[in-house]
Amino acid sequence: MLHGAPGSGKSTFGKMLSQATNWPHISTGDLLRRHITARTEIGQASVAILEGNFAPDQIANQLVADRIQAEDCKNSFILDGYPRTLPQSTLFLPALRRLNISPVVVRLQLDYEATKSRLRNRVSCTGCGAVFNLVSLPPKQPDQCDECGSPLVTRTDDQVDLVERRIEYYDRLTAPVEDYFIENKLRCWEFDAALDPRLIFSQFTNHLVAASLVVQQTNAAQ
Asked: Where are the domains of the chain?
């Protein structure tokens, strides 16, 4: 379960980890955007949600519950920013226990000013969802994704007037979640999100191997 403030690199790290392990990378934001694009019932009811807000608990829970029942989630999966509220956590953690799943919380720590800077300079691919930063991780070609060549855009919830709101929501809603993780004695591994994602990945893989959760391979966890 990847946790951290908006802009801390959860999506970048999650995609990197997924590519190396074949574990599905599950983001409630991505799932919701797909529903909006497909004009499903959930999507049509949720158009305004992404404008600086988090998905309501009921919708987030439904999206994740449906997704983790897929065959590719049978052994392992990566949750990006979920559960992010206390009601989500108190429902989801007991469900994981019933499935005999022992989660690991990965906390990506980033200070307030760095968070704002990242959000204001972040662009996302309209095709594959890859994320770039115009300052620290710029694309090779302006406005074009390095991975698939699709156009890059600033997400609605990354626009300047919504950044402060997203950070405020995170501070207010997520602190109780982290306390809940501690109370339930979950394994919580913290990493400095200001570091290169490749270094964070290497550190994380070492943690997995040390905890006997994976067997070390030549290039990545398996």
From this structure: 2-116+162-210
Residue 91 sits at the vertex; the CA angle it makes with 204 and 32, to the nearest 5 degrees, is 70
Q: How far is CA 213 from CA 1, 160, 168, 197, in A?
A: 14, 40, 35, 21
Fold classification of 2-116+162-210 is: Rossmann fold (3.40.50)
Distances (CA, A) of 175 to 35, 40, 137, 160, 167: 28, 32, 29, 24, 12
Distance of CA 171 to the CA centre of its chain: 16
Q: Are 86 and 54 in contact (CB under 8 A)?
A: no
pLDDT in tens, the chain (222 residues): 999 988 888 988 998 999 988 999 999 888 888 888 888 877 776 665 555 556 788 888 989 999 999 999 988 999 998 998 999 999 999 999 988 888 999 999 988 888 887 778 888 888 887 888 887 788 999 889 999 999 999 876 556 567 777 788 888 888 789 889 989 999 999 999 988 888 999 999 999 889 888 765 534 443
- State how far the Cα of 206 lies from the Cα of 80, in Å rounded to an integer: 20
Helix (H, G, I), strand (E, B) or coil at 132: strand
CB contact at 8 A, 139 and 132: yes
- Residue 109, strand partner residues: 192
Q: In what order do the strands lie in the sheet with 122-125?
A: 131-133, 122-125, 152-153
The structure tokens listed for 13 are: 């790290």
